[in-house]
Amino acid sequence: MLAGYLTPADCAAAIADMDDAERLNAADIVERYHEAVKKYQDQLTQKRRAREEQKQAVAARRGTLHAVG
Question: How remote is the C-alpha of 22 from its chain's centroid?
Answer without folding.
Answer: 17
